[in-house]
Every structure is written in C-alpha cells, then in structure tokens.
Amino acid sequence: MTGQQDSPQRSSFFGDNALKLGVFCLNVSGGMMLSGASKPTLDWDENVSVAKAADDAGWEFLLPIGRWRGHGGKYNANAEQYECFTWAAAMAALTQRIQVFATCHVPIYHPMLAAKLSATIDNISGGRFGLNIVSGWNAAEFGMFGIEQLPHDDRYLMSAEWLEIMESLWAKHGELDHQGRFYTVEKGYLEPKTVQQRPVIVAAGQSPAGLDFGITHADYCFVGSDNWDLLEQTMQRCKTHAAGLNRELNALTFCTVVVKDTEAEAKRYFEWYVDELGDLETAQRLANNIISGGAQALPPELVAKRARAYVAGWGALPLVGTAEQVAEQLARLSGLGIGGAALGWLDYTEGIDRFNAEVMPLLHQAGLRTDTRSLS
C-alpha cells in the first residue's frame, strides 16, 4: 500500500533519503521520558520552533503520541497533552514539506469523524498528512470516554473495518452505506476528498494480530526495542511474518537520543535522568499493563527490566554517545532494514539543534541522507 500522490510530492516523506527522520512525542509534557528531569509543562512556542527546525533541515515526519491523561506517580508524566488531530492541523499550516501525522485511538474516533479530520488536514497541508493508528491498550484513558476495550485480537479486526470505511470515504464520491460487525454508516458523505490517493498509514503492534493488521493495512509498521539483540530478533520475526502474508516489511522504529562531547559524558547524562530522577514505580505499573494486558503474573525481573526502558523513553532504543557514535548507531538501524526512526530528547530544542549541527553531516557522509537543506 502507498499513500503517495499522483502529482509531484511536496512531502519530504517521499524523498530519496535512505533513513527517514522524525520527531516523536513533541505534543506531550515530559516527551518520551518518565523522569523528573523532563519539562513538566507544554510550551506551544517550543513545539513550533522544533517542528520548523525539522522542516527546514529536511526531516521527513512529525509524529505525536496519543495521550488523554497523565500517568500518575511521582511526576505524572504526560499530564499535559495537545490532541493529535488539532495539533497536526496547526503544524500542517506552519510547515512546508514535512509529513505531519496524527495518532488516532480507533475506539475514540468514529470513522466518519476520523475521515473528515484527515481529509481536512490533508488539504491544509497540500497532501502531507499521515495517520498513526492505535487499536488500544490504555483502559484508564478509554474509561474516560465510557469505552470498554474489546478482547485483544478483536481490536485489530475493528481497526481493519474502521480503515476500510475511511478508505471508501476518501476515494469514492457519492454516499456510503456500510453495515459491519463494529460500525454502521447510513448515507455517509465526505467532501472534499484527501489530496493524496490515501494518507500514509503507520501502525504499531508486534503480537500476531497486531502484525497481521500492520503488515496488511499500513504502509509502515513500528518495530521497537530498547536493546540491539532484541531489536534484531524482532525485525527477523516481523520479516518472517510479512513473508507469510506475501508482503514486504516496511519498518520504522523509535529512539531516544543523547549527544555529548564524550561517550562518558553522554552515558552519565542518560543515567542521571533515567536512574537518578526516573519514576521507576510508575514505569513498572505501565510496563506490566502493556506487556501483560493488566495481568499480574509476570516475573518481577522482567517487569523491572522493561520498566527502566519505559523511564528512558517508552521502551525506545537509546542512542547515547558522541555525534559519531550516534551516527554509527543510526547506520546500524538502517542495516537492519529499518527505513526510519522517530526521535525524542530530554530537551527537544537543544536536542534537534545539536543533532542537525553534529549528527546530520555524518549521516550525509555515510550515504544515509542526500537532502542538503540540513547542511546549509
């Protein structure tokens, strides 16, 4: 599947760079970390400046995370959030070439509404909108809407029907009638249509049902881990799963980044905000809920190991070291067959400025980037 337009692309997402770069979790307080070192409040001006810095440097995408409440605990990380569709609409109007995603929790947005929001933002952006589909996991958030989550595998069946309705609305003129297992639409109508044939779709989910949905319905699947060995194993498992569906795996991943003058300084900084100021207790609760779906029978050592990764950046792969070391790690990601990385920092402003100044030229030297805007 592809979201590419018939007309020449304005979006950087369809450029020639071998490794796509995105900004992740800019729309929530605390960003990717469960740490007392994170900024506790949102700053719209910072959101705009970081987005423009990415756009000006030729980055491919902006990806917000879907959150409706904080996580409680010592710091109540992510306690402030910008809603993803309205955030994406504003970002689309303020940028020129970067792909702007919205993260959408399927049970909260009826497909008629989600299709209309998507088409509107795609028109605002001139065909630069993308959709990150989340089938659901956070019972506390859905409870705010009076929504009871479906059994795990049924969530992905619901998402498939949801997307089918939206694709019909985007593509076909006239009215749409749909009677399915999860949705009924009577005389559904959508104008104007999307600028793209179909907005770019990404999805996460590494269970068999999640992979079935992502590989079959999305343009890119998020494949992530906090360590290299497991990431390599997960990539191989996902490639094998895709081959069983007669598909190729288009993979993105997500990373936290620390760039300092020396490796020792970078590691010390990472350990400071993770081990000294991290909210491990809250992370253990979240890790247990995410891994087990709320069951309480997981081995404590597994929960503890995963919890540290959630403190450090929602289980992301940490890229920590000098600019040269971070560039080498990004090259290693590309070597695994990963097409792009969504990145986050403890300090987004300092982080993207330093990345553009120090890491980006090295990615050019390695042949992973060809867009020269970041070097001007």
TrEMBL record:
<dbReference type="Pfam" id="PF00296">
    <property type="entry name" value="Bac_luciferase"/>
</dbReference>
<keyword id="KW-0288">FMN</keyword>
<dbReference type="InterPro" id="IPR011251">
    <property type="entry name" value="Luciferase-like_dom"/>
</dbReference>
<dbReference type="InterPro" id="IPR050172">
    <property type="entry name" value="SsuD_RutA_monooxygenase"/>
</dbReference>
<keyword id="KW-0503">Monooxygenase</keyword>
<dbReference type="InterPro" id="IPR036661">
    <property type="entry name" value="Luciferase-like_sf"/>
</dbReference>
<feature type="domain" description="Luciferase-like">
    <location>
        <begin position="20"/>
        <end position="338"/>
    </location>
</feature>
<keyword id="KW-0560">Oxidoreductase</keyword>
<dbReference type="GO" id="GO:0016491">
    <property type="term" value="F:oxidoreductase activity"/>
</dbReference>
<keyword id="KW-0285">Flavoprotein</keyword>
<protein>
    <submittedName>
        <fullName>LLM class flavin-dependent oxidoreductase</fullName>
        <ecNumber>1.-.-.-</ecNumber>
    </submittedName>
</protein>
